[in-house]
Amino acid sequence: MSSLDRETLEQIAQQILTEPSNAYFFDDRLFSTHGAVLSWAEYGDDILAESNYRTALDLIRAAADDGRNDTEISDRHVIDGSSRHWAVGSLRTIYVQVREDYERCDFTGCAGAAMWWREGIETHTQFCEDHRAEYDEDGLSYEPVIPDFTAAFIEAAEIIVALQDYPVLDESDYSEREYERWHSNVNEALEYAQRDYEDDTEEQSAEIASRCDGDLSDLYGQHADGAVDWDTVASIYREARDAYFTELGNAHLNAPIAGQLALA
Ligand SMILES: [Zn+2]
């Protein structure tokens, strides 16, 4: 089912269920049944962290729901948690339920979780904490039930291992996000540059901006996380504007003035 062996899965389970020190969690599933897989500082600029987070969340939810027509399982097995963090503001964290739920106790009318089991021909093979006492009285031996890993956890473990080998989960998602961010940064920088020339008409501003396209494209990829240097954008705009008005001026000079005879 998984490309990872049992030992690796056990190790990762232990890792992600280890509660960070000095932390308080409002949800008591966290670090008991659900382990922390991946975090992302929501209001930061780290596009790769965002891309990996959203990709991982989709993959894990899909793995949980695989073969079903509802999302009940992923709703229970996958938590898209959000917490306040002193350094980064809001920290989003994916938590996954590591193991399947316990089944119900075999004793009639008992709703307890079957955390123990006993091999043999008895009717009550799996039983809860309360019924365990009866077996103790009879001096019978039993074993703890260890439920299977959930599909959500196995997918999460594969993602954790993949990220150790290569930092990008989905290359095209990442570059799309980076380009979008860069594009919106460029537009913002352009609008800012245009504020210095408020007397230009809308038509002129649009024409000058479109003449900047080539030079602006060259800026893509120069800075991490789609960042743009506003001074550079401002000087590209200034040059394009100078060129535009120079051309316009020349066109005026060369145009025949009304009433004047064109010189042959
Ligand atoms: Zn019971």
How is the quaternary structure best described? single chain
Class of secondary structure makeup: mainly alpha
Number of H/I helices = 9
- The domain tally reads 3
Query: Low-confidence runs (pLDDT<50, min 5 residues)?
Result: none
Mean pLDDT: 91
Largest sheet: 3 strands, antiparallel
Rg from alpha-carbon coordinates: 31 Å
Shape: rod-shaped
Spatial separation of the terminal alpha carbons? 87 Å
Percentage of residues in strands: 5-15%
Name the bound molecules.
zinc ion
Q: How much helix, percentage-wise, in residues?
A: 40-55%
Per-chain topology:
Layout (H helix, E strand, L loop, with lengths): L5 H12 L16 E8 L5 H19 L6 H6 E8 L3 E9 L18 E2 L8 E2 L1 H9 L5 E2 L6 H15 L5 H24 L7 H10 L1 H5 L12 H25 L10
Antiparallel strand pairs: 1-3, 2-3, 4-5, 4-6
Helix pairs in contact: 2-5, 2-6, 6-9, 7-9
The site of zinc ion has 8 residues, from helix 4.
What can you tell me about this protein's structure?
By secondary structure, this protein is mainly alpha-helical. The protein has three domains: 115 residues, no CATH class; 45 residues; 80 residues, no CATH class. 47% of the residues lie in helices and 12% in strands. The protein has nine helices and six strands, in the order αβααββββαβααααα. Strand 2 and strand 3 form a beta hairpin. Helix 2 crosses helix 6. It is rod-shaped and about 115 Å long. The structure holds zinc ion.
